[in-house]
Design a protein that fits this description.
This protein has 483 residues and is an alpha/beta fold. It contains 14 helices and 15 strands. The protein has an eight-stranded parallel β-barrel, surrounded by seven helices. A three-stranded antiparallel β-sheet has the order 11-12-13.
Length: 483
């Protein structure tokens, strides 16, 4: 069994597997009124779907420890006991579905009081429901004490709401990260300057939260392992580095932090970040190796083989799947051989694996590529590392002649659905019990248009028709045949 599906124990908590959902802000809470900051049906459905899909740990989005600690007026908040019933809806559902409920606590600092992401994140004034955001340089010592207390109070409420994991957001340019990085912290007192001073606020928050968080439950910290400034020879700004993260990790472990969620960037918008599949995994691997602290890897991890390899190589102890879980909520529970990458992830997977040229499709349970001339060509080990399937050219020839044999007659290998899956580099057969209606509808159009284009090259008069009879087993929706 892959390590992805092995339980993971931290303190007295056992997480059923190592495929976890990271915090992802939904900007869907009420911005004013008695329910401000309270989870809505959207949040319940969003997290419940991923728990039902098999994620072992679900981390609720970055939740403000105070009204002015939110990024937008539409973020969740946990600064009042009146908000707890909404969070209990989430924890109750996740627990009933076998997932562990977790929550990320955050303070936005100078990044706060902005509009929602798709509206440009413009700064909002008080007349628009915003507030005056403050960063490390503007905070008085009394303000720092108050915010530390707010984190502790939020953690206490999270435990009362039924959460079993708390994660502190100390990355992505939010307040704790603003204190850590020399590019954003220009204080000249005991909270600025040296490494020890810049980490003082983070350590105080960890101590305050650990003091109120149950001893048997784990505490996570999300960090930006690097600001991507010092590593860039063309950038003369001094930023937070991986060396700093390793030093911080050792200090956090001594204060009761059980795992680091290793991300990167976010402190300045113009940092040159080498984005690519698994681009943050080496950062997590280095922090784990040099500090001895358990880590979770995150960032453009999109397919099971990629995730399993990270664990097998001891580069991380768990995998956080973000955007791919948004696209495929059942990613963790999809049976082996039935996983289908989304369009958005295919180009990234292709860049990492260097697949052979041309498209590869599946007809009757077999893979082939549609080359420029439109003939079937079995994939071999010398072209993309895919095992040869030995697809006969007659399949494509019959399609060119106007008959798609597997779809029309049900022919093909045992258990085959006869579905044509064009737009991917390697896509498994659908399964009647795991077929995703939304996914099938999304791919029906491209599936049909792919064959239409191929057939029109040699038979322009051929047009698709939909039969009146029953569809192919395992396929939801109309079956396209050619005649």
């Amino acid at each position: 069994m892959s390590q992805l599906f092995e339980p993971y124990r931290l303190r007295s908590l056992t997480i059923p597997n190592r495929v976890w959902m990271p915090p992802m802000n939904q900007y869907s809470a009420a911005s004013q009124g008695p329910d401000v900051g309270v989870p809505t049906d959207w949040h319940v459905a969003h997290q419940g779907a991923r728990a039902a899909g098999g994620a072992g740990l679900i981390l609720t989005e970055g939740t403000g420890v105070s009204p002015t600690g939110r990024t937008t007026p539409y973020d969740l908040g946990i600064w009042s006991d009146a908000q707890l019933p909404g969070f209990r809806r989430i924890t109750g559902l996740l627990t009933s579905l076998g997932a562990v409920p977790g929550i990320q606590l955050s303070h936005s600092g100078s990044k706060g009081s902005t509009d929602r992401q798709w509206l440009g994140r413009r700064r909002l004034g008080p007349e628009q429901g915003g507030w005056r955001p403050v960063g490390p340089d503007e905070l008085a010592l009394a303000d720092i004490d108050r915010i530390v207390d707010e984190f502790a109070a939020a953690a206490r409420r999270a435990a009362a709401a039924g959460y079993q994991v708390v994660e502190l957001l100390a990355g992505h340019g939010y307040l704790i990260h603003q204190f850590l990085s020399p590019v954003s912290n220009h204080r000249t007192d005991s909270y600025g300057g040296s490494f020890g001073n810049r980490t003082r606020f983070a350590l105080r928050v960890v101590d305050a939260v650990r003091a109120v968080w149950p001893d048997g439950l784990p505490l996570f910290v999300r960090v930006s392992a690097t600001d991507w400034l010092t590593e860039n020879p063309s950038d003369d700004r001094e930023g937070w580095t991986v060396d700093d993260t390793v030093r911080l990790a050792k200090a956090l472990a001594g204060r009761g932090v059980d795992l680091l969620d290793v991300s990167s960037g976010g402190i300045v918008p113009d940092a040159k970040i080498p984005v690519g599949p698994g681009y943050q995994v080496p950062l997590a691997a280095r922090v784990k190796a040099e500090s001895g602290v358990p880590v979770a890897a995150v960032g453009m991890i999109t397919d099971p083989d990629q995730a399993a390899k990270i664990l097998a190589n001891s580069e991380a102890d768990a995998i956080l799947i973000g955007r791919e879980l948004l696209r495929h909520p059942s990613w963790p529970s999809t049976p082996p051989g039935h996983w289908e990458p989304s369009r958005a992830s295919r180009s990234r997977i292709a860049a990492r694996t260097e697949p052979p040229p041309g498209r590869r499709a599946r007809v009757g349970g077999s893979d082939f590529r549609a080359g420029a001339t439109g003939y079937a060509e079995g994939a071999d080990a010398s072209r993309g590392g895919v095992r040869s399937t030995g697809v006969p050219e007659t399949i494509w020839a019959r399609a060119r002649s106007g008959v798609v044999a597997p779809a029309a007659s049900g022919a093909g290998p045992a258990g085959s659905t006869g579905r044509v899956r064009p737009d991917s580099w390697e896509v498994p057969r659908a399964h009647p019990e795991t077929a995703h209606p939304r996914r099938d509808r999304r791919h029906h159009g491209p599936r049909r248009s792919f064959l239409v284009r191929a057939l029109r090259k040699s038979a322009p008069s051929v047009k698709p028709v939909t039969p009146a009879g029953p569809g192919v087993p395992g396929f939801r929706g109309p079956v396209t045949r050619f005649s």
